[in-house]
Amino acid sequence: MQVSQVKFTFLQSITDALRQEMERNDRIIIMGEDVRIWGGVFGRFKGFKEKFGENRILDTPISEAGFVGVAVGAAATGLRPVVDLMFVDFFGVAADQIFNQAAKMKYMFGGKAKLPLVIITMIGGGLSAAAQHSQCLYSTFAHIPGIKCVVPSTPYDAKGLLTTALRQDDPVVFFEHKFLHSIEGTVPVESYEIPFGKADIKREGKDVTLVGLARTVHQSLEAAASLEKEGISAEVLDPRTIVPLDEDAILNSVKRTGRLVIVDEDYPRCSFATDVAALVADRGFHYLDSPIKTVTALNSPSPFSPVLEEAFLPSTERIIKTVHSAFGR
Amino acid sequence: MLTRMLMIRRFEERVKIEFAATRVKGFVHLYIGEEAVAVGVCSDLRDDDYVTSTHRGHGHCIAKGIEMKSMMAELFGKRTGTCKGKGGSMHISDLTLGMLGANGIVAGGVPHAVGAALSAKYRGTDQVAVAFFSDGALNQGVLHESMNLASIWKLPVIFVLENNQYAESTSITYATSVADPTIRASSYNIPASRIDGMDVMAVNEAASGMIAKARRGEGPSYLVCDTYRYMGHFEGDDQKYRTPQEVEEWKRVDPITRFKNSLIQEGYLSDEKYRETNESILQEIEEAVEYADKSEWPSPDEVMNDIYSSM
To answer: How many domains does chain A have?
Structure first.
């Protein structure tokens, strides 16, 4: 059967998944700041108010703890709320509702609750948005058992993973890198699911494994293209979800390549990067031909000035340099 | 209502004993003295109405109809408990009875009641939601945010403040900027009343009006119940923040004694019938303890179950 496809930006594919699932399931509602008139700050829900009506598209006051908590209560009682937590940096004001309530309710109640709640939130730097609008923080969420964490890198993955999120019954945080909003990709018109916990190899290689998420997948691909010219064949592995994490795919890749560089835009301490490093040190040490390396944001708040931010963020150049060091160059 | 209040009182008295005997572990916060609030409100709720509770939640659970047997088993940490031994005192819940959980975080459950009310309204039912909280929650931001949201969306929620005078060791007169908490409700344009929370009839009368109003789609209400916890904040509290005389003063207006006496006076109850009721409750609690005691422990390999629905 011919699958019809369309060229979508990352943002369009998110809108598409939401629209298709809202048509399919009338228990899905959207809550957040500025969602009715603007369709969210970057227009993710544009036209939804007209299409689905005001009672499915709820504008909230700037009141994150309140509306995330309301979404938890609504999810526990039969709705499937999608909460737009504009920038991930705002999680702090709603942290109790996310970490102590949503994440733990099912467990605390002995499994007798369902929490089909999706929080969509923007992450990432590169726009000089400074210390409170540039963080990634997915490692912070992944630290807490009970929350699934989705960090897509392409329009195709974004649509499929969001569709899956809207069809399962656990709290999911969907991290959307703002630098990726305008990238384009080919996306099936029909809806489809991508299972959580299934990594995708974005580029095959045999000398070194680069593990990246969201924007760093693209930086890793650029680095791999450049490394190829000097004879280094880099594999780029995108876990796509960090809870659940496809540990086997990472271990298998390192088994093939013998080298690992983790490229992560989150802070370096107690992070996704250190977690993957620990996994491979623990269960794949004997596969390694050289020490595990990481390329991460620096251990500093995100700076404002573009010059400082460039120094702060992972870059293609830093990835290449780090791969060189893994080869002792 | 008398039976329910007595069930709560006797259950809590037994929990106190079992805690002292170390058969009930963890943190235990007893509801003794405040029974009129939970019972006065919940007596007018249906099974499909929603309730959110606090860390002092046993009373709300019993008032909403959760079996004492499975509650006691939960407190003992057994697999037959309401939460399979994973929640304990601060997380007892039963979603089939609309009981959305006790909650270990002060005011943490309040927005869940607003969310349940939003859900009911969206689904087109006439269910209502009650958020129980105490004076300790009065200065938590999420309570204010929840009240504002319930008001702007005109949701069927009743906010029930159990003003038991102390947030742990801190008096409401110290911690809260207004002497009359109903003033807080007026900021959110929510109608409020303040009543004697040691009088179950007064609580019930006020609550039933608010519940009916919410069911008719006329939005949220706020009920302030002045009450008192006889025990410490937790079992083991030295209670240096109050005098034994103060506790005795409040015990003089004990909700169970008052209601019992008025029922006897009006000829609805005899001393004998009261004794019988009390005996049968004690018997039921004895059976609950035996059930909890004899129930199996969870198996250690269950620790990783129930985190996610799917993985």
So the answer is: 2
In this prediction the pTM is 0.96
B304 touches A at CB < 8 Å: no
C-alpha separations of A30 from A22, A203, A329, B156 in Å: 9, 36, 51, 20
- Give per-residue pLDDT as tens, B79-128: 999 999 999 999 999 999 999 999 999 999 999 999 999 999 999 999 99
| One domain for residues A210 and A121 | no
Query: Is B310 a domain residue?
Result: no
Which token pair is A102?
Answer: 């949503």
A100 touches chain B (CB under 8 A): yes
ipTM score assigned to the predicted complex: 0.95
Quick one: pLDDT band at residue A1, thresholds 50, 70, 90?
A: low
Residues A217 and A262 in one domain: yes
Q: Rounded to a whole number, what is the distance in Å from the CA of B122 to chain A's nearest CA?
A: 7
Segment A50-64, tens digit of pLDDT: 999 999 999 999 999
| Residue B47 is assigned to a structural domain of this protein | yes
Pairwise CA distance, residues B77 & B85, whole Å? 4
Please indicate, yes or no, whether residues A234 and A313 belong to a single structural domain of this protein: yes
Residues of B in contact with A60 (CB under 8 A): 149
Contacts of A193 in chain B (CB under 8 A): none
